[in-house]
Amino acid sequence: MPSDCITFQNSGYFSEIITDYLNQSEKVKPFYKHFPTLDNFRLQIKEKQNFNTENRKILTSALQKQYQGLRVSGITQQNIELLNQKNTFTITTGHQLNLFSGHLYFVYKIISVIKLCQQLKQQYPENHFVPIYWMATEDHDFEEINHFLLHEKKIVWNKPSGGAVGEFDTEGLTEVFKVLSTELGISTHAQYLKDLFEDSYLKHDNLADATRFLVNELFSEYGLVILDGNDKNLKKLFAPYIQQELQNQVSFTKVSETLRDFPYSVQVNPREINLFYLDKNLRERIIKENDTYIINNTNLKFSESELLDILHSQPEKFSPNVILRPLYQEVILPNLCYVGGGGELAYWLELKAFFEEVKVPFPVLLLRNSAVLVSEKQNRKREKLSLTFADLFEKQPKLVDRKAKAFSEIDIDFAELKSQLQKQFETLKAAVAKTDKSFTGAVNAQERKQIKGLENLEKRLLKAHKKYFAEQLKQIIALQNELFPNQSLQERQNNFAEYYSEYGKLFFDKLFDQLEPLAQNFNVVIF
User: Fold this and answer.
1) Do residues 321 and 231 lie in contact, with contact meaning Cβ atoms separated by under 8 Å?
2) Residue 124 lies in a domain
3) What CATH code is carried by the domain that includes residue 326?
């Protein structure tokens, strides 16, 4: 990693709550239990060591069923079987079923959980650690997942939508495949990606199966286990908590209590009932009105006894929302840690009191890895322009101003001049105060006028220097725009295919080699 690599805290891309969490600030400590260090995982293992044996059997059985028909690597199969053992624990990340994985950070999430499992195995060899990717098959926001960017071209899957996205049929993806094929070109790596898309999306009937196939092909050799929570037998394990939610609204009460004294912007507000009713082409909120449970935007209504009868016979019809999904995960998995992005960790930090109320161990929260991917050509350009990677993280207007001043042979920062002027006026004000205080207003007005005059001169001089050094500044802007497209993070814009089509397996090898899940740094990976 380059020596001038930037920390998450100094990158400028994280909210106050996340930077405070990374700094282990006293302000945020009430909202989590164990900070992610290798030593602290010993405490988390102790908290989770009595995970229900019967739940392990049901989990393993569900996974074996979900993997039927897939080519499963030996290490993934071994990891599934290890989940039956009481000394096996999981590290989990979750993600939507974005088309062709969506943004780059999907890859970083999965690498984070795999690498962390490897490190924990070295630290605690008496235990086993299984990396889990939780497929968000029950989400219903199709507009968030139906596209990805490749070479700045937005590739979109257009189709009517409704219900849980995992059940969406893959009709219409042939047209997407044609566009993707054109964009990828004809290289060997590009052909692999075309075959991967075709095998994933054109040979499977629904989005859940397509995504499982895709992720398994990319990561099974590392032992990744893919889990679909939309499973009847797994939801049976969660049924007592669903019933508690329907009858007592515990999550609303406890999370609302937390948010009353929450010193940060609220990421997610709880509803009175944090459950959806799930059916074919339907995922709608459950709302309680007096003694009746209403399914929003439908004519469906149930008494409490009717709804509980459905829960006991068809638990798959109940779907947790963003407040309850974390609890569902921790109930059915022997999980130690959740790995997520800044927004995800922000809403997890609202949930600790709720977990304590329902007596489920609260997991370690780990901010996923992030990276800036740089080609050798781009790195040479950076060196030629005398830019550090920290420079490139700056907001563009500030970077341009600073570099224009740095190029100049004269000092066009008038801060020292303004300071000297203010000191002179302080002396003048002191003299006036001893003679005739009526002059104070005139002195203040003159001070403001002269300071403003200096500021205007500074701006004009800076503008002139920008014009004089326009070519160098143009090159800096171009490089920053390449590495931070749309003045945003690369990982939130680009798709992994853009890099895999050029570097092939080396792309993953480099990321696995350089990303360190506990380091809290923005990695710079040079290809």
Assistant:
1) no
2) yes
3) 3.40.50
Residue 503 in tokens? 């570097």
Please list, in sequence order, all residues whose beta carbon lies within 8 angstroms of the beta carbon of residue 19, skipping any fewer than 6 positions away.
8, 9
Residue 230, in any domain of the structure = yes
Helices 232-248 and 53-66: crossing angle in degrees, nearest 10, is 120
Over residues 15-36, the pLDDT tens digits come to: 999 999 999 999 999 999 999 9
DSSP states along 364-429: EEEEPPEEEEE-HHHHHHHHHTT--HHHHTS-HHHHHHHHHHHH-SS---THHHHHHHHHHHHHHH
Q: 289 - beta bridge partners?
A: 292
Flag whether 55 is in a domain.
Answer: yes
Q: Low-confidence residues of the chain, pLDDT below 50?
A: 1-3
Does 153 reside within a domain? yes
Domain, as residue range, for 195: 16-235+322-372
Q: In angstroms, rounded to a whole number, what is the distance separating the alpha carbons of residues 521 and 527?
A: 18
Specify the 3-state DSSP secondary structure of 290. coil
What's the number of domains the chain is made of?
1
Of the candidates 311, 175, 115, 321, the one whose C-alpha atom is nearest the C-alpha of residue 232 is 311
Note the pLDDT tens digit of each residue in 164-203: 999 999 999 999 999 999 999 999 999 999 999 999 999 9
pLDDT tens digits for 399-437?
A: 998 888 787 666 666 777 778 878 888 888 888 888 777
CA–CA dist 22, 349 (Å, integer)? 13
